[in-house]
Amino acid sequence: MNRAAPTPRDRTLALYRKTGRDLPFADVVHDVSPGASDDALAEIIEADGRYRIERGLEVTLERYLDAIPDLRDRLVSLDAALDVTLRALSGSRRAHGQAVESLVERYPDLETEIREAAALNGAIWSTTGLRDAFVRQPTKSLPGEFGPSTGGGRRRYELRELLGVGASGQVYLAVDRLLSERDHEALVAIKVLAVRSTEEMTRFRLTDEATKARRVTHPNVVRILDRGVSTDNEDYIVAEYVEEGDLGEWLERQDRPIAAREAVRLVRDVARGMHAAHTAGLVHCDLKPGNILLTSDGVPKITDFGIAMRLGESEEFPRRYQTDAPIGNLAFISPEQYRLDAGAFTTASDVYALGGILYLLLTDRLPNGDTAADIARTHDAVTGRRTPPSLDVGQRRIDPDLAAICRRALEPDPSRRHDSAAALADDLDAWLRHEPIRWAKPSLYRLLRLWTKRHPSVAAGSVIIAVTIAAGGMVARHFARQAGVAIEEYSALRGSAIDNAQVLFARAATQSATSRLLSQVWVSHFMLSGIGLDDPLAAETLFNAQVLVLERLVERENAAGRGHHLDPLNHKFLLAFWRLGQGRIDEAMTLLDEITPRFKAILPPDDTRLDDLEALAACVAVQRAVRTPGFDPAVDPSLGEAIRALIDLEDRYRRFDHRSPLHLAVLEALASGYGPGGLNDPERERVVNLHRDLLRQEHQVEHLDLRTALQSAAR
Questions:
Q1: Are 450 and 479 contained in the same domain?
Q2: Is 298 found in the same domain as 178?
Q3: Annotated catalytic, 286?
Q4: What is the residue range of 79's domain?
Q5: CA of residue 103 relative to chain centroid, distance
Q6: Catalytic pick from 235, 246, 269, 286?
Q7: Upstream peptide bond of 568 is cis (omega within 30 degrees of 0)
């Protein structure tokens, strides 16, 4: 596995991870890239500012001006410093006006540069490529009469409030007198278009928004109610009023990270609405948080089909707007739409934008970069990004399956994305239900974890059965009623439960039904994860009993002539992994030698399970080498080869399968392989610290899983 050379941004974040403390910026530059170019220095500043913002550390322009004496003359780096400073002052990813004025007051000599940085920051959130078609117009007096006459000098609509002003016009909250009742006002949103009278094509396209949007009927798409021309010859569109504002405004109001399940539900619903639009023959081309409105119940609704294309009109899109600039929202625009590639404006572009919105909700990062320069680099046809962005950013850990779904939607190659918005929504639904994402080729361990999440009462029931055997019916019934309380409530019963769990395993080992054995493997793993983690002897006892059950399952599958099928091969892989955990190195290697050629004959070359096989084989090789008396790495290079393979594999696990048991095994093998012919000194401290952190996180997560299961069983 070849890894690309780390960028200045990567090296900056690696330095902070290594030191774990606040550093003067001059020291950061010296350690990362002394004598850095303007572009490299801008990356270092961006990474430094991002790291400090995420951890609540102060970000000031002085930090960068004091450390870089010629920063005022380095325009790219200065823009990066101004951008992170404005974001820190604004408390969000967007540069707010108050922050701009505050910085201008402090640095009047940099006023032009500050306002340009703020304008660039705002530009990536707005729709580009269309601004020349519009004119500024004065806002209307409020309250005011608007629309067709209803007699008696009154108009159908009474304008109440200016909701927003954009490049394409103004949006007002209004009362529809025709549909209102005496005790209930019918509120609507009216978009008054700002179009030059000479721009007939643009005028047609924007008023055509109403016609296009009315083709879509879906609870996650804003309904268009009417369209018309005012007495002042202004085109307008009337839509349902959605009361809570847009998703971007909602995000700005949040004082906490967005929960993953909340983010997934939002994007799933938007994807359903987007699929309805695609089915009606429309491509939105401008999906962004500002074009997703929220009801008071939190239901998202897609709005603003102003630049939407009918399917099959992709080739006409750039010519229709007579521009070679990107058309759409830069923050979430797909690579092909950014470059105006032939045939670029398809449903795949909307899928990319949906993935970008999910990425923002999960990471608080923009998928294409934070600046226009970042986005240009990301989408460059020759040197741009070839793989989706990682979600392993900041301190938050994203579930591997969810990360895989998001990354698939953000594939630079449209053909590698989800086939449709509905397919993306289906994957998100499956994730919410703890079902495996089949195209992600989940490991057996992953399938096990998902099974326990889907069947928490069964998993918790095995614990309660063990306690019943140990403590009698009265205590067990009391325990079951109290199962939703903290771990301490049942810790006193843990010893008896562990003793009697072995009874359950012994019974399972005599079962002839493969399905029952497999179920017992799942349940036993869940029990092992949740009980006795702080008691090494108890954990070892349960683990050994669990291995016996899996061995029985493998024997049954071999006897039935199914040993070469994929599921039994997965079971053998898990058995090899567990035997490694028991220190049965030779038996683990023998099993791997058996299953590796069979896996390679079944799986495609890019299947991640082949990486898992390589990782496990390398772990076994390291453990065998370090346990062989008199092993000489100068004579036998196998240890060094295995270590090099594990270093590359560990990088993948850290990015895509964080906190998996195999990741832990890789780290353990690396730590064991320290010394001559093995791991070098600079890597050892990082490996040991990461292993310790992962163990602590795993302990916390497994206890949380068990508590959730017990609460479900109690209900």
A1: yes
A2: no
A3: yes
A4: 8-123
A5: 33
A6: 286
A7: no
